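Holo prediction. Input below; ligand is L-homoserine.
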Amino acid sequence: MTRLHKNATEQRDYAAALAPGSIGNIGPGLDVLGMAVSGPGDRVVAERLAIPGVVIADPGHAELPREADRNTAGIAATHVLARAGAQDIGISLTITKGLPLFGGQGGSAASAVAGAVAVNRLLGSPLDAMALLACALEAEATISGRHADNLAPSLLGGVTLVRSVTPLDVVSLPVPAALRIVLAYPDQRMSTAEARGVLPRFIDRESVITQMANVAAMTAAFANGDLALLGRACDDQIAEPARAVLLPGFSAAKVAALAAGALGGSISGAGPTSFYFVSDDITARRVSAAVVESYAVLGIACSTRVVRPAIRGALSLGEDATGA
Ligand code: HSE
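Structure of the complex:
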């Protein structure tokens, strides 16, 4: 029935995977830095079908496509089958969306990663982490652009630096134990395509130099557990100024968060979610209240969550894990 041989005894009829949400860019690291976060994720269940190919039994949301070649989990699954030499296998995918659509919480990446991991498990795990990342990257490239800053942490957990996508070269960074993050989710939507459309094509030398210094400083801050440096380095000269104009209330909310004690913050991925670093739970509550109030003044509803970096990504989360 299958041309797969590795771990053939582990092949099965059903497998599932849960992938956490993530913060893309983490401020200055446009398309290169990302962090998996605790809380809801996207779950994909893969089941064998008699007819070859991938079908979407449930896309998880009325607005998500049922066509496998337009659905991130479906595209990733198709690439896993191809890479594993298992195109003669039929697979049905059921997606449960824990992450919002158009939210800037890494939802499309989480679905792609969970799809890739679930199908790989179904096949007996013939592909390694980088091969799975490559499959999920094809999905992300089709839907929202060729970047792996959400995919890598969702797959591997923790904080990741994508040094290169061609070839894939990903570095996992240490996660400071004391770090908390306030995620603020205003009642807005932002498509990644639109948010990428406003990115500047050319960037002046001073901004590039500042950005390079801040990305390097963030890497050092994660490596050394230096939260003060993490806050100082969270200064994005490229995407945040361009995107803030698309996100009513963001700039004022960030000012309010910093005044309430946040160490630093920015737009999470393409937005509209924003994130704020804090080092303790009391400050987290203060920052949450300040951000909600700031949006409320403008008549914009906003919910917040206090999260931690999620150490485990989809690869290490068990099939029944909740992802919390
Ligand atoms: N790095 C991406 C961006 C994340 O900022 O456009 C959103 O998918």
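The domain at 180-307 is CATH 3.30.70.890 (Alpha-Beta Plaits). That is the main takeaway for now.
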